[in-house]
Amino acid sequence: MRNYLFVLLFISSVAQALEVDEKLTMRILKVSDSRKTILINRGEEDGLAKGDHAKFFMTSGVVARGMLVKLAPTRSIWSLYRLVNADTIANDTVMNLKITPAVKVTDDDSKMLLTDDTPQRVGNADPNALGIPLAQGAQDLDAPLSSLERAELSELRTKILDKDIGVKKVEIFASLQFSRLGSKVENSNASTSVSDSSISTDLFLGGEYYFKVTQDWYSKFTVSPFMHMINNQQLQFNGTSVSTSVTEFGANANYYFNGEHSKAETFIPFATAGFAIGSVKDTVAEGAGTFENTGSTSSISMGAGLKYHTFRGYGLRLVGDYYSRSESLGEVAATPGVTWSRTSSGFRFLMGLSYRF
Question: If you ran DSSP here, which 8-state letter would residue 139 be given?
């Protein structure tokens, strides 16, 4: 069997910081008891930056204003310094955020929806000169957090934020595969049919690309191209044992049930299905010499697995699946004019190591 060089190239884009007046649709993931601290499903990859100020609004109008105090690739924690409608600040609420200048708005709720609420000219200018009256205590934006707020932030960070490694988009892995497959060999005129089973240990090399975690349906899926190399003893066209080498190239589509494929130090369940094509070569010794029979293969698989990542990107993956491979073999000297087909199917168990970066 010839060796192949398997190269995966991925291009990632760098998110640019959002400007004043830019909007994002977001979902609240967790709310503190005081409703002054929220965790949302938007982060650095969406252009947010620590220290950003934003107003949160729904179709009914503005419901809160806040400042971004903790940031991860796909998550962020906001401290809400003004609540207009506290009832809307709840888990799983979907709303928009709009980046605003770092000023606090008036206590008069009727002025929150004015068109000049987010002026184009910001910076060191006097907020009153820009048409945005300050609320009483606006200078508290730079004040230290209270003990309650610090405790809430620490709890959210420990439970949720720090476990996110979504900035690492690419994973490479190597797995050993253990299988017991049943095989059936037939010739083209259906005059011969032989069945048997074999045990094999194979090498599985591949990669996986993770989309960023969002509300979009596709964020729960990943794409995993792979190369599968098999060397074992199988049935030959006449029913004798033969050394078989198979090399397959294909891809798996993986589905993460809870959509959280970027958590560290947590077991992550997923479902997987794949398709591959490749080549097969049978080698059999006959007397003082050997002869070969070559052909093509195609295979499908379907199963489920668990994976585990550390914060540094090292990981473990376990997969169990059902696998079926069809092989089309050419003519041999013993049976001129006759081609052969072989099917192998059964359950596999894959165990491997990975590195995510």
Answer: G
- Residue 172 reports pLDDT greater than 50: yes
Query: Which fold is adopted by the domain 23-163?
Result: Thrombin, subunit H (2.40.10)
For 62: left if phi > 0, alpha if psi spans -120 to 50, otherwise beta; the answer is beta
Q: How many CB atoms lie within 10 A of CB 157?
A: 16
pLDDT of 183-214, one tens digit each? 777 777 765 555 566 667 789 999 999 887 66
- When mean pLDDT is compared across 104-113, 177-186, 213-222, the lowest value belongs to 104-113
Structure tokens at 142: 């730079």
Q: How many CB atoms lie within 10 A of CB 16?
A: 8
CATH 2.40.10.340 residue ranges of the chain are 23-163
Distance CA 220, CA 341 (A): 38
Cα–Cα distance measured from residue 73 to residue 306, given in angstroms and rounded to the nearest whole number: 23
| 101 in Cβ contact with 119 (< 8 Å) | yes
Q: Which residues belong to CATH 2.40.160 in the chain?
A: 170-356
CB 188 within 8 A of CB 14: no
* Cβ–Cβ < 8 Å for 157, 325: no
Question: Which of 3.30.950, 3.10.450, 2.40.160, 3.30.70 would CATH assign to domain 170-356?
Answer: 2.40.160
Distance CA 297, CA 280 (A): 7
Residue 66 and residue 76: Cα distance in Å, rounded? 12
The pLDDT, as a whole number, for residue 344 is 87
